[in-house]
């Protein structure tokens, strides 16, 4: 059992939890992830390690409530425990030889991009952060990002905060404006990562994306997380989750991620009953 | 006077068209009377050919003689003197190629039903005298066991009995290895495996789940920082292979590992669980081993109307247990033998709508004497399916060997060990089971765990 020691609602749909997991905290690195299970009936769900505290033995995750499992997790309070929490999984991001990097985050992807921006900043790399959101209500981690970024650009689709436009508009402008990036790190919805990769390709800038296929074990034993990169099958949980954005087959990933769309929608509807049942179990 | 019936006493089973809709056990087990009668078919042969067919040399005629007398307790003691998991082995050993293949009664007629008798004794014991073992006196030394499949469970059990403080590190959220994530409930009830794990706990073995060794801890950290005196690696061969044919990335293509894990470990067949699984109407399972049979039979039980086995050789070459092939056929699984998939078809929306196969014929025998299949040019045809399960083999996961200095593996990724001791190329680090042999059997994995436990005991006594 893993105990929740801190909880923050970052916006109406994004939650931060700090969880006691000393073994994971001891080894965690930026770019790695965990897999959690809320209770004995739950599925296994991956989330990026947003932060960790080796001394306290805690790991922080930041996640968007999108369906059954993430809602169930968000329903837990400080002091509650969750059944399973395994990690750190995946290969940590490598930052060799960078002088200047653009970190592009889309929506909750900013939560995943943040530890990378922070790690780069701590290594003395110049970091430009471009953060994109649909509107002002869902902006997260603004202060945290500013603290580690040399330049922070906030973009919203509707212009209710920061500049109106897409992250790709800003990225293109910065590159064309003469910024020499050794790499671009893009984390967010699949279409965003695809378009960032398309934007950087003509400039030949190395572009790293963090892929989010459906996972089970996270150790290379199910193959469910397979993605095509450079024409070859890769298992994102052990070969990634970071890959070269210019080589990734994003359309395939998009398609594969839709496998349980109907069932997930169904489950999201019934999740209310599930929560009721859980509440009853707690009372008994 | 021995019972000279040419046939085994039949095992009661759920009817095929009933059982292919539920996950309860298919074979129901012998009654006392059936077991005692079958036991009288054993001739108590002097040279005991059957014993040499068993990888752990179960004292077969001796335990069967006790069954014939009705002393099941005595039978259990004899059985468990060499086999720690008789309830498992009685159910899943490929008896027809092991113990029973050497039985003299099999020369004319069917061999003695050694597996069924073994299962009977184990089940009888569980139902009647199930006491938990006590915690043995501790000798002050610690051993880490990585993985919790049959090799690890056997190794941990023997070491705990010898007084070692044993910690099992398992990557998944539940211990048991393939016995819980691969082999379905209808073939091996999970309660049986859990009971074995409870016994380990009673002996003081600590089981830590959610620990992916190579990630959260390295072998070196286990030894140096955590103070373990020896390590056993029983991490199996869980890395799935794909065929590298067009269409394998379509929605609806699973590895058998994923398919079976969702169903067995994560209980997609029970409504209370959150695990999603594709609702399939027609499923093709590619392969001919136990894994393929299990996947096909699970697909049927999950509601698929049509389930096909697609296998590139003929039935004779199928590595699956005879009983499973037989059961699968009874349950309505259709076999496309001597067929090789060349392509998985897209319905235009990124989902599977068929599998294109090529007919094969058996060619000249090769060096090993096996006639290998050769494709018949232009014989392509399509089977309409919405789901494909790839069950064409697995290999050891590189996670541990790639994070441990000095741990040698062969070309296939299998850990290299000393055959006498099962020690790896690192002192104090032992390995066994599928991690060493590649995908094999439960009983071989158990044998390796046992051998390694004895060698670890020897090593630590002298250290
Ligand atoms: C390596 C990795 C890191 C991730 N990090 C974060 C993070 O830090 N914050 C965050 O908000 N989200 C993260 N995700 C995505 C997160 O796992 C999904 O949002 C979550 O699984 C949704 O589950 P659900 O039951 O709540 O929703 P559902 O309604 O069941 O699913 C919604 C969508 O999530 C995806 N999904 C469903 N099940 C899984 C699964 N088992 N594994 C992966 N994706 C799945 C599918 O695309 C699906 O359509 C990450 C994914 C991966 C692979
Ligand atoms: C579907 C299926 C059906 C089968 N049917 C039969 C049958 O009928 N008869 C038969 O004799 N054999 C059968 N087999 C084969 C048999 O199950 C295996 O040979 C046997 O289980 C191997 O045992 P093992 O102890 O080596 O490893 P496994 O049972 O594979 O267990 C390995 C364990 O190690 C864990 N692990 C892996 N990596 C790590 C890590 N880095 N850190 C921590 N833990 C880790 C895994 O999660 C797993 O729990 C079948 C196999 C499958 C998949
Ligand atoms: S352990 Fe397996 S091979 Fe040995 S006697 Fe029992 S069933 Fe036969
Ligand atoms: S070979 Fe057959 S008949 Fe002879 S002892 Fe073994 S089981 Fe009995
Ligand atoms: S999640 Fe199973 S192989 Fe990656
Ligand atoms: Mg879900």
TrEMBL record, chain A:
Name of the protein this chain belongs to: Sulfide/dihydroorotate dehydrogenase-like FAD/NAD-binding protein
Domain FAD-binding FR-type positions: 1-95
Taxonomic path: Bacteria, Bacillati, Bacillota, Clostridia, Lachnospirales
Protein species of origin: Anaerotignum lactatifermentans
PROSITE patterns: FAD_FR
Domain of life according to the entry: Bacteria
InterPro entries to which the protein is assigned, alphabetical: Cyt_c3_hydrogenase_gsu, Dihydroorotate_DH_Fe-S-bd, FAD-bd_FR_type, FNR_nucleotide-bd, PyrK_electron_transfer, Riboflavin_synthase-like_b-brl
Pfam families with a match to the protein in the record: DHODB_Fe-S_bind
Gene3D superfamilies reported in the protein's UniProt record: Nucleotide-binding domain of ferredoxin-NADP reductase (FNR) module (3.40.50.80), Translation factors (2.40.30.10)
UniProtKB/TrEMBL annotation, chain B:
Positions of the FAD/NAD(P)-binding domain: 141-449
Enzyme Commission (EC) number: 1.4.1.13
Pfam family name, one: Fer4_20
Domain of life, source organism: Bacteria
Domain Dihydroprymidine dehydrogenase, first and last residues per copy: 19-127
Gene Ontology MF term list: glutamate synthase (NADPH) activity
Alphabetical keyword list: Oxidoreductase
Signal peptide: none
PANTHER family listed in its UniProt record: GLUTAMATE SYNTHASE [NADPH] SMALL CHAIN, GLUTAMATE SYNTHASE [NADPH] SMALL CHAIN-RELATED
Name of protein: NADPH-dependent glutamate synthase
Organism of derivation: Anaerotignum lactatifermentans
